[in-house]
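Same chain as my last thread, 469 residues:
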Amino acid sequence: MKNRFNFSLLLFTLIVWSCNKPLDDKDLWKAIIAPANPISDATCLTGSVKGTMLAGKTYTVCGDLFINEGDTLLIEEGVTINFSVNANGGAPVGIGVKGTLLALGTQNRPINFTFPGVTKTDELGANPNTDPALKGKWTGIIGAPTCPMMIIKWAHVEFGGAAISSAMKTFTSGTSPYSLYFANPKGIFVLEDSWIYGSTDDPFRINGGKIAVMRNTFEKCGYTGGEAMNAKAGTIGDFAYNLCIGMATNGPKLSNINVAVGVPSSNVRIYNNTIVNCGYRRAAAGRGGSINFEEGAGGMAYNNLIVNCKFGLRVVNNPIADTANLRYGYNWYYADSVSVASQFIPSLSVSTAISQPQATDVPNPYNYLPEGWKPGNVYTAPQSLVGANDPQFINGPVPLPTGLKLADIAVVGKFNFALKPSSPCIGKGYIGFNPKADVPVDLKYGATEITPPGKDIGAYQSNGRGNHH
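reply #2:
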């Protein structure tokens, strides 16, 4: 009896201790995403796929992979996926997604989607005509309208955007090459803490759905056109704390074109992003720069740091954005030339923009716009704006290094876009709004968190929140 009592006491003690023990995040994470149907890395992958790509393994893809409707592919931390050319014809390959894709990397062990043997040309001023990052080596991850969920966390997506195979077109109804593509108006798309490097066009195109695109880095995307995010057709959610550098056109662009009947209009909160040297590979005149709202799209844009971009925030007049449901301000501009400063508020002579001046912006437009100025009018910025309002990056291309053009700055390289403690951007952000949890907050099936607006301008926060790249 005594022994039974001691055993019961010991069991009770263990239970109490377990209930009060601090949660071990690593153990909890493993419990949540226990592997199922492990996929072997012993052979070259092609065709239908479902199950789990196991942590730390390297997989080679030599033909289009397809996740069928109702199936799930889980990619664990530290996985590398090397895309080859199709073994039966030499064409580029990719992943078509009718089901669910969960790519769950971690900060210490990110996932890599790449094309082996390609050397990054990270030097400043690399010739875009010969840059492999802009040529597209593998197709991309292409979601079909039936894809209910695409979750990508802590992943490198490099050299995507090659031509889509006829099999992929049939499977997804996609026709254009994008590194990431999502097209379900009722679906959920999450991209967080990831790096998108190089693409032939948009690295990320979305045609409807609820999104959380947070704390990512977009580098050197689009050959003669392409935005960091090109969102259309009833896209709703958040684009925040992203670093966009050297985009062919804009950082984020929002439109409502092709929205389905009964689907709410596009409305995205664009806040606390750092957008650097964008718009200079855009082939069409009057396009490209930083942030773009057009064709029935609403939303908001606050606390964005816009440095040496071809144009400031553009609200497009034809077809017109949803100006009744559009709010913006507290954005910070820097220019190394009069021509760039003269497009902080784009003029109709070279753009279809009708952006309104906001006294909360830095610099305050009412201090440099000529008397009688109206939205769309041409103006010449005063020389005093050139080099003014330096954001004080820890190590950034400000002022423009001698001998380089604005178009030459397209990659992060050795730059560090976090702010010095003396930066005038610290404490100047607007926090009087809240992002809504349009996507679930969940370690596996949603966003890790919906990071609220920051008190500092740009993607990097002095309190340690925001972008961690």
